[in-house]
Structure formats: C-alpha cells, structure tokens
Specification:
about 350 residues; 13 helices; nine-stranded mixed sheet; elongated; Rossmann fold; alpha/beta; 9 strands; single chain
Length: about 350
C-alpha cells in the first residue's frame, strides 16, 4: 500500500489526510475489481479493430463490412451484431437471408442512441459490431446538426457557438462508445462525391463518380485504427495504426469477397485462424486413425477389424467400438501406446 512519509513541507495532519485518501482509493479499487467492475490489465491489452468504410451510394461499403464481420466472427468462434439507422433499414433487407442477420433498428439518430446500442451489443458478448451508418448521427432528423440548430434557436438566441458547446460533448459520447467497446466495431459512413468526366479512346465521354470525404465531423477518421475509401468496386486502404505488412495504400478489388484483405485485417488485430487450426487438428486426427488401422492390418491380418474393436472398447471404457468415435484425448493415449 502506498503511503506518504516525512515529505518536506508536509505537515502531520496533511500526511495523515493523504494516506487516508490513498487507503480509501485502493480499497475502493480492490472492491470494484473483485465485483467485476474493473477489467484486468490483460483484458485491456486486447487490440480490437475499429474500422471505418466510407463511400458514395452503391459503393458496396455495407456489403464489405457485413462480409468482413461474418468472417471475423467465424474466425473467433463468436457472433456479430448489426446496428442499423432508420434510414438504412430498407437497404439491409436484401442482406437478411444472405448474411443471416436480424439488424437492430435504432429508434432515433441521436449520438446517445448509437452509443447505447454499441455498448449494449458489446456487453451482450458479440465479438464484432457493425454500425450502418454513422452519417445519420450527424445529419439525421435527431442527429447532432439538428440538435445544435434546435439548441441555438430555442435556448441560446441563435448563438451557435454556445450551442456547439453543448452539442460537441454529446457527439463525443458516440466516439467514446466505439473506442471503449470490448469488441471489433466496423462502421460505414456515406461520403460526399463529385462527378468527373473522362474521355476514352475515340473521344467518348465517360462519367465517373469520385468519393471525397465522409459525411461526418471532420475529426471522425482519427477515432479508427483502419480506414477504407470505397470507389469503383474497390477498397482503398487509406490508413491504419501500423502498415499492416505494407498493405496501407494498396487498392483491393471486390472487398466483399476478398479473403486476402480479410485475413490481413484479422492478422492486424491478431485474430487466431480457428478454422485453419480446426482443419489441422482434423487432419492430424484422420492421419492417426489411418496409421492405427494400417498397423492393425499389418500385425493381425484378417483379425484386424476385431482387434480394433477390442482396442476401441478398451480405450473408450466400453462406450465405442470404432476408433473414429474416440475422443481426442483417448486417441492420443492409444497412439502413444501403439505407435511410439
């Protein structure tokens, strides 16, 4: 326990007050930790993906994050949860069957509602959370722009500066919910766009939609550790907290089906490849069973089936007559006794 002793210029009364305060703080922290209110340092060291995918309409940003969320949840053996703003609900209908989702439809567009939904989804144990779309927390009917406008008109006599003094802390609650969520959070955001005219061979004009910047607060991108700009069926990896093995700055085609991109992001946040691990275990098990059958045929000839049944009954304590039905532990014990 930390205490203060004999500090120069520190009176005995002040020293006792400081020590009493330290004891109180440490006792409170100990009680909170034992009650599960404070996470351990090991839990806090877990690195979660906070991803922003922004693009103009029909740029496949929603399909990209849904496919990535499903992949990440499968890799971790967890589940993913989709939070959808009212304005995006019709867009998600075609994806319900394909991605097997029942999205949570937000009742309003306020940042507090978004933040509460993210916090609740993380508390429910979902390993990946999709938010589609963050734009409406900014421009929606009850988004922060409208909230600040109403505050300025009704409470501050048109003074928008004072209104933003109230609105900015409300908006930052959404950022805080994203950052504090003990889960991977994948967010989409609409973007402003421009129409460029390009000339093909032969002089034909071709219109091209160019994604500009997210339709959200200017500092939004700093709240994420990975950022993608979607355009022309491509995902441009614009930034991350590391170079992701040189992937930052690259352009990935078909991001909604690109396993290379998905696995780069899984490696970035150190998600173990459970499917690959399961395949390796399965292959190892099948190899062991094949080797045991070959050993029995070589040693017992025509009596091999009878001998393998006897051995299976012995190592399964009478529960199974087939090597294939042995548990991994039983099979490992048999393999060590026979093959080594």
């Amino acid at each position: 326990m930390s205490t203060v002793k004999g500090s120069r210029g520190c009176s005995p009364n002040r020293e006792n007050l400081i020590n009493s305060t330290l004891e109180h703080q440490q006792a409170a922290a100990s009680s909170a930790k034992s009650a599960g209110l404070i996470r351990s340092r090991d839990d806090d060291l877990r690195f979660y993906l906070k991803l922003l995918a922004y693009g103009h309409d029909f740029s496949k940003k929603t399909r990209f994050v849904l496919a990535l969320a499903r992949h990440m949840a499968n890799q971790e053996g967890g589940s993913y949860h989709v939070i959808c703003s009212q304005a995006e609900r019709d867009k998600l209908l075609p994806y319900r069957r394909e991605f097997d989702i029942v999205p949570e439809i937000l009742g309003d567009d306020s940042p507090e509602t978004y933040g509460r939904a993210i916090t609740n989804a993380a508390s429910a144990g979902h390993s990946v959370i999709v938010v589609d779309s963050l734009t409406h927390a900014w421009t929606g009917e009850t988004g922060i722009l409208q909230t600040v406008h109403d505050l300025a008109e009704n409470e501050f006599r048109g003074d928008t500066r004072r209104a933003w003094g109230v609105g900015t802390p409300l908006h930052r609650k959404l950022y805080s919910a994203i950052q504090r969520a003990q889960a991977h959070v994948l967010c989409t955001c609409r973007a402003s766009k421009s129409i460029d005219t390009e000339y093909e061979d032969g002089g034909r004009r071709k219109r091209r939609v160019v994604t500009l910047r997210p339709t959200q607060r200017d500092d939004l991108e700093y709240e994420f550790n990975a950022k993608f700009r979607l355009q022309d069926g491509m995902a441009i990896f614009e930034g991350a907290r590391s170079d992701c093995n040189g992937s930052v700055g690259k352009t990935f085609s078909n991001p909604d089906t690109n396993f290379e991109l998905w696995n780069i992001l899984c490696d970035y946040v150190e998600i173990p490849n459970l499917q690959a691990d399961a395949a390796a275990i399965r292959n190892s098990r099948e190899t062991a069973i094949t080797a045991l059958h070959d050993y029995a045929k070589t040693k017992y000839g025509n009596d091999a089936p009878m001998k393998t049944r006897e051995v299976a009954m012995k190592y399964s304590a009478g529960r199974s007559e087939r090597l294939e039905d042995l548990t991994d532990a039983q099979l490992e014990k048999l393999k060590k006794a026979v093959l080594t």
